[in-house]
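Helix-turn-helix domain-containing protein (Streptomyces ruber), 60 aa
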Amino acid sequence: MHDDVLLTVPDVMARLKLGRSKVYDLIRSRRLPSITIGRCRRIPAWAVREYITNELEAAA
C-alpha cells in the first residue's frame, strides 16, 4: 500500500472491524490522525497501520 493513500471512514471501519462511532472517537482523541477535505474526512493509510502497530505494542 502506498503512503499517500487516503481512506474514508467506512474504509477504516472495514479494515479495523470497528463501528462508525469508535472510528470518530479515535479521530477526536487524536489517536488516529485525519484531514478534512471540504465536508469529507480522510485518514491516511499510514495512520491506520501506525495505529495497529501501537495497539499491538501496547498489548504486548
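Residues 6-59 form one domain. The first helix runs from residue 9 to 16. ok done for today
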